[in-house]
Specification:
By secondary structure, the protein is of the alpha+beta class. It has two domains: 85 residues, Arc Repressor Mutant, subunit A (Orthogonal Bundle); 142 residues, Chorismate lyase (3-Layer(aba) Sandwich), CATH 3.40.1410.10. It is 26% helix and 28% strand. The protein is built from seven helices and eight strands. It has a six-stranded antiparallel beta sheet. The protein has a two-stranded antiparallel ribbon with strand order 1-2. The radius of gyration is 20 Å and the shape is globular.
Length: 254
């Protein structure tokens, strides 16, 4: 049954006060604006929303910034995007469970803490059989491999072991990953169409344990994540977190 606009409840940072958007990243301001419109019923479920070009003009930002805002809203289940047609307010009778790709730098800074990244490996490789299978490329394909440890207030929080399809991000290795995270860079230069996740409890490898300051018997939360665009894979990452230092939160609303 189609619910009236008044019943649409969406948690926002604060749609009541534009003042709270001060200091937000441009894509976050766009998200807040759209969530406020959805919450107030300006765009009821199924309604066609402003195009990317219209939002670019309204907010005086790049198309890439607008695309990121809409992509995150889609992952949160608030909008539907149809290629070549437009963006629509989501039908709320559907119930889904999803994980949103977040930039670990933004997560840490949002808590008022300091993020630091240490790059232990950044090189070009040819895909082995195991890497080719996980990433979804041909054996021997040109790939980029980075190994980075992310810390929060000086404490190791995540070991990120990532392979990137060189065809999707040819300048990947030229980026200073102590200043820009791979997630942030790839979301900008290689917009994804689909992301697949698996989350499990497990033990770190010997190398991961050393980088995270753990014993090999210490439990970890391990996230395997693979992203693709319309025609090819973008990246495959293994993200290992000490179990006592990291958690995944979610929200369910029927």
């Amino acid at each position: 049954m189609k619910q009236p606009p008044a019943s649409r409840k969406i948690r926002t940072a604060s749609t009541a006060s534009a003042a709270n958007s001060a200091g937000m990243a441009p894509f976050e301001r766009i998200k807040q604006h759209i969530k406020g419109k959805l919450e107030s019923g300006v765009w009821p479920p199924g309604a066609l929303m402003p195009s990317e070009a219209e939002l670019v003009n309204e907010f005086a930002v790049s198309r890439m910034t607008v695309n990121r805002a809409l992509r995150e809203l889609q992952l949160e289940g608030l909008v539907d995007r149809v290629q070549g047609v437009g963006t629509f307010a989501a039908q709320l009778h559907r119930v889904s469970s999803s994980l949103v790709i977040r930039d670990i730098h933004e997560e840490i800074v949002a808590r008022g803490h300091t993020h630091h990244a240490t790059v232990h490996l950044a090189r070009e490789e040819t895909a082995s059989a195991a890497v080719a299978q996980r990433l979804g490329v041909a054996v021997g394909a040109r790939v980029f491999h980075t190994l980075i440890v992310h810390s929060e207030n000086g404490v190791q929080l995540q070991c990120e072991d990532r392979y990137v399809n060189a065809l999707c991000a040819p300048d990947y290795l030229s980026v200073d990953f102590t200043q820009v995270t791979p997630t942030h860079y790839l979301l900008d230069v290689a917009p994804l169409w689909e992301a697949r996740f698996s989350v499990q409890a497990g033990l770190p490898t010997t190398r991961e344990a050393k980088l995270l300051g753990l014993k090999t018997s210490d439990p970890c939360l391990i996230v395997q994540r693979r992203t693709v665009n319309h025609v090819m894979p973008i990246t495959q990452a293994r993200l290992v977190h000490p179990a006592g230092r990291y958690q995944i939160d979610g929200v369910f609303k029927p």
